[in-house]
Write a structure and sequence with these properties.
It is built from 10 helices and 8 strands. It has helices at 22-32, 43-49, 52-59, 74-87, 100-110, 141-154, 164-173, 201-207, 216-219, 224-236; strands at 13-16, 38-41, 63-70, 91-95, 117-121, 159-161, 179-182, 211-214. The chain has an 8-stranded parallel barrel with strand order 1-2-3-4-5-6-7-8, surrounded by 8 helices.
Length: 237
């Protein structure tokens, strides 16, 4: 039987630190101030700086969403999840398409770390329906997201990652206590980047998201603190 998330961050806005250096990332953290308690460290920053940047954030009292997008054999994924737990991460991502053995191994590896939540990544937000056939999938994005999210629930993952476009669907089929983390968040639906399925913070909240991941809309803003405050207000309305 699935268990509730393990002390998830009370801040529903996760700021994505997609920077080429730890110094730039930490300057942004200081600029936003104490109200922002959750930050995403993804592949770019982790590869540039190594695990030290995660330790720096944890030492500042921040929750770290370690977006590793793990997709490997069960033993390797379990080892990486344990490493994330030792670093003090609060969330770590594993590709649901890696299958039940991998998801189960990840959940088991997280058990010694009471604050570490395993999030199953469903379909990355750059993919659209027409992109799926080239990777051997005949289903629509909605169908594939639902299939993988239900698999994650059966494997006792603490939450899922999916775009806002699928969040309302998932809210109907997943246990209510599962975390629903939505990337691809912009402050305007007209914003364009390399993500195909985007939405605003308010749309995410209305669709049932528990957390949103916001990068450039906050980190590239003239006043990141005000941009963060606006996103937080939208999520808490």
């Amino acid at each position: 039987m699935q268990k509730p998330p393990r002390e998830p961050s009370t801040c529903p806005v996760i700021v994505a630190l997609d920077f080429p250096s730890g110094a730039e990332a930490l300057r942004l953290v200081d600029r936003i101030g104490p109200h922002a308690s959750s930050y995403k460290v993804g592949l770019q920053l982790l590869t540039e700086e190594g695990p030290g940047v995660v330790r720096d954030l944890v030492a500042r009292g921040k929750d770290v969403f370690l977006d590793l997008k793990l997709h490997e054999i069960p033993n390797s994924v379990a080892g990486a999840v344990r490493a994330a737990g030792k670093l003090g991460a609060s969330m770590v991502t594993v590709h649901a398409s890696a299958g039940s053995a991998v998801l189960t191994a990840a959940v088991e590896a997280a058990k010694p770390f009471p604050r570490l939540n395993v999030l199953a990544l469903t379909v990355i937000t750059s993919l659209k329906d027409q992109d799926l056939p080239e990777i051997g999938l005949a289903a629509s994005v909605n169908d594939q997201v639902e299939r993988l999210a239900l698999l994650a629930a059966r494997c006792d993952c603490h939450g899922i990652v999916a775009s806002v476009a699928e969040a309302a669907l998932l809210a109907k089929v997943l246990p209510a206590h599962m975390l629903k983390v939505t990337p691809g968040i912009q402050f305007s639906e007209a914003s364009h980047n390399d993500q195909a399925r985007v939405a605003t913070p308010r749309m995410a909240r209305q669709a049932g998201a528990t957390h949103v991941v916001i990068g450039r809309a906050i980190t590239g803003a003239a006043d990141p603190q005000s941009a963060f405050a606006g996103a937080l207000a939208d999520m808490r309305m």
